[in-house]
């Protein structure tokens, strides 16, 4: 490396060399940052009961499937039967794990505070072995910068008038938590638009934007509606639209709770953006 630096110095002016050195340092820093972000994709946190072997194997199994989906961008791996034998022995892929008590600081007052206590189990898997598993399944890691997903959604709940989901709307407090949890689960950033952003773009309850109207090139807009349906199947009905690489995609979900409706939006977006053919 030192010899290479000397050769470069002889060819370039001092100023040009400094520019090149800064560029290389910046590129190296970005590569390290990207690698660090990718490392985070190889861990997942699931809820289990207790810290012993009663629930640890199933916790490892659930975490493994979540990591495979997050790393690859292929949600179908969540229920892929080919993974059943491996998921049953997910411990063989684990690099480290740890527990966090969900009731830490809360005084023990009944059985829920002893052997039935709930814990967050965070599992980190060996990166090389996860990549190998994906290759054997015909998949590969979804590397590079992942676009930010901006959901523009009209919501009609059980009661009240329909409203636009935003960063400030009072009715969307619990829903914003659902969006955050979904972004963590699937390894992307979901950026909820503000009221001012929606207003500036002329978006209204009766006027949703075109999916091609993303704020920037590094963002993807998912436009849609979310309504609670009281007839069969009872639950939330979501309809989503997305434009990616000059192609339009649309998909739906029905009869689910709100969290699962948001997860459906996220799954569809990551499947398309990671290079798979359809949202579902």
List the helices and strands and how they pair.
Layout: H1 2-11, H2 14-40, E1 43-49, H3 56-72, H4 84-87, E2 94-101, E3 118-125, H5 127-136, E4 148-156, E5 163-164, H6 173-186, H7 195-200, E6 219-229, E7 235-244, E8 247-256, H8 258-273
Parallel strand pairs: 4-6
Antiparallel strand pairs: 1-3, 2-3, 4-5, 6-7, 7-8
Helix pairs in contact: 6-8
What is the CATH architecture annotation of the largest domain? 3-Layer(aba) Sandwich
Widest sheet: strand ordering:
5-4-6-7-8
CATH C-level class of the largest domain: Alpha Beta
| Strand percent estimate | 15-25%
Strand-and-helix sequence, N→C?
HHEHHEEHEEHHEEEH
Total domain modules: 2
Number of strands: 8
Determine the N-to-C terminus distance.
48 Å
Mean pLDDT: 85
Q: How would you describe this structure to a colleague?
A:
This protein is α+β, with helices and mostly antiparallel strands and 280 residues long. It has two domains: 40-136; 148-273, Rossmann fold. Helix content is 37%, strand content 23%. It has eight helices and eight strands; from the N terminus they run ααβααββαββααβββα. Strands 5-4-6-7-8 form a five-stranded mixed beta sheet, covered by helices on one side. A three-stranded antiparallel beta sheet has the order 1-3-2. A hairpin with a 2-residue loop joins strand 7 (235-244) and strand 8. The chain is globular, with a radius of gyration of 23 Å. The relative contact order is 0.11.
């Amino acid at each position: 490396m030192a010899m290479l630096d000397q050769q470069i110095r002889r060819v370039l002016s001092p100023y040009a060399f400094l520019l090149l050195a800064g560029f290389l340092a910046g590129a190296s820093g970005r590569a390290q940052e990207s690698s660090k972000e990718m490392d985070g994709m190889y861990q997942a946190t699931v809820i289990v009961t207790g810290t012993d072997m009663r629930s640890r194997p199933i916790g490892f199994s659930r975490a493994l499937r979540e990591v495979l989906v997050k790393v690859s961008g292929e949600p179908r791996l969540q229920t892929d039967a080919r993974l059943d034998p491996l998921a049953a022995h997910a411990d063989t892929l684990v690099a480290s794990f740890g527990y966090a008590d969900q009731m830490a600081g809360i005084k023990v007052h009944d059985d829920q505070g002893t052997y039935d206590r709930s814990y967050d189990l965070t599992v980190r898997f060996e990166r090389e072995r996860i990549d190998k598993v994906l290759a054997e399944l015909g998949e590969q890691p979804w590397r590079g910068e992942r676009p930010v997903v901006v959901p523009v959604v009209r919501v009609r709940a059980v009661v009240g008038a329909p409203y636009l989901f935003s960063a400030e709307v009072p009715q969307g407090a619990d829903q914003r938590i659902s969006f955050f949890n979904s972004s963590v689960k699937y390894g992307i950033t979901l950026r909820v638009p503000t009221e001012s952003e929606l207003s500036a773009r002329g978006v209204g309850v009766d006027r949703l934007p075109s999916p091609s109207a993303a704020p920037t090139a590094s963002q993807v807009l998912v436009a849609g509606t979310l309504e609670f349906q009281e007839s069969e199947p009872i639950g939330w009905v979501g309809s989503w639209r997305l434009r990616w690489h000059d192609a339009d995609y649309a998909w739906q979900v029905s009869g689910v709770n709100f969290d699962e409706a948001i997860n459906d939006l996220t799954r569809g977006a990551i499947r398309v953006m990671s290079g798979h053919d359809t949202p579902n």
